Structure formats: C-alpha cells, structure tokens
Amino acid sequence: MYFLAIILICSFIIYLPHAIINPWNLPNPWLYYFLAVAIYVIGEVILDGVIAFIIRRLPEKWMNPRKGMIHASDKELKFLKAIKVESWKRFMPDLGMFTKFQKGKLDDPYNNEYIHRYIVEASYGVVIHYLSVPFGFLILLLGLIEPNNLTTWSIGLPVIFVNSVLILAPALTLKYNIPRLLRIYDLNERLKAKKEAKLAKENENK
Question: Which residue, of 33, 36, 65, 162, has the greatest Cβ tally within 10 A?
Fold first, then answer.
C-alpha cells in the first residue's frame, strides 16, 4: 500500500504542472497529460514484470549469494546499516504471492531447506530489482509512437526515476538480509554435522 500511494502521489506531481502550464499548447492538456503519465507508469510496471518473468527463468545456480551483484561487501553492509535500511522493511511490499514464498519474516530459522529457499528467493529478488533499473529506460521508446515525441523526457524520465527508487529500495533490504541468512544456514550445517558426528561416535561405542 505504501508503494501504491507513492506511485499515485508522484504521478500526480508529474502530471499537475504539465496540465496547468501546458508547455506545448495542446487543446486538451488535462486529458492528454493524464493519459501520457498513465501510459508511462503502466508501461514501466509492465516492463518491470517482464524483466522479473525473464530473470525468474534463469538457472538457480546463477543466483550465487556469495559473489557478484548479490553479494554485499563489508563496506556495503556498513553503508546499508548507516542509512538504516533495516527500518525500511515494514514499508517494503512482499511479492511472494507470485512465487508462493513470503519473505516478510523468517518463519523457520532451524530448517535449512527453508533457509535455502529463502536465500534463493532473495537472490532472485536482488537481481530482478537491480536489472530493472537500467532496463527501465526502455520505456523511453514509447516516445517513438507519440506524435512529435512531446513527453518522452519531461514525463518519461521522472517516471523512470521514481521507478528506480522504488525498485532499488527492496533490493537493498534483501541484499542486507542475505548475509544474515547465510550465517544462519552455515550455523545450522555446523550443528547438523556435530550432531551426526556425535551420533556416529555413540554408535561406534555400542
């Protein structure tokens, strides 16, 4: 709901000056600019969905949380902590309904099958959100079908900027949480190994 409210408010802020000033002296500016903003916003949402659909079809082995764009260095983690990324979590939308896996909270921290799935879903999320930013500029191609290409920059670019901010915020929260998930996973593995070793030793002594 927070993101929807932000999208509606930002869309109105982009729309209102155009409708009032009417920089291109259009005969019906209130309707024209409303449709222009709506088309760019809806187009950006559809484009984000297409990027997510494509990335989700990539092999899971490519989503390595310990390296690449998914991995967060110590400096990056310090930066994310400094900007209080933890406090953003409650504002982030959980799109787990599309993958049938909710990431709003850690429900089963001692189950490594669950932790592994959580890490995989979070890793896909980081890649999807990061790549959605540069590919979001493809929305400017809508200007090619608009007469005289009037709103490509004055409406298209602000829409891209808002989308980029809203796309990056969840990516940063996911990226901040992944190292914690990895530590929990590794700890569970060590405890499991110790338990198995203890059982094996007890069986030898019988």
Answer: 33
CA atoms of 176 and 183, how far apart (whole Å): 12
DSSP letter for each residue of the chain? -HHHHHHHHHHHHHHHHHHHH-TT--SSHHHHHHHHHHHHHHHHHHHHHHHHHHHHTS-GGG--TTSGGG---HHHHHHHHHTTGGGGGGGS---GGGTT---SS-S-TT-HHHHHHHHHHHHHHHHHHHHHHHHGGGGGGGGGGSGGG-SIIIIIHHHHHHHHHHHHHHHHHHHHHHHHHHHHHHHHHHHHHHHHHHHHHHHHH-
How far is it, in rounded angstroms, from Cα 11 to Cα 191? Answer: 51
Instruction: Output the DSSP codes for 126-148.
Output: HHHHHHHHHHGGGGGGGGGGSGG
Distance separating alpha carbons of residues 110 and 181, to the nearest angstrom: 11
In this structure, the number of other CB atoms found within 10 A of the CB of residue 125 comes to 25
Whether the model pTM is above 0.70: yes
> In the numeric block, which tokens belong to residue 64?
């390595």
Residues in CB range of 102: below 8 A, 6 or more apart: 94, 96
The HSE-up count of residue 105 (CA atoms within 13 Å, CB side) is: 3
84-136 pLDDT, tens digit per residue, is 888 887 777 776 556 667 676 778 888 999 999 999 999 999 999 999 999 99
Listed in sequence order, the residues at least 6 apart from 3 whose beta carbon sits closer than 8 Å to its beta carbon are 91, 93, 166
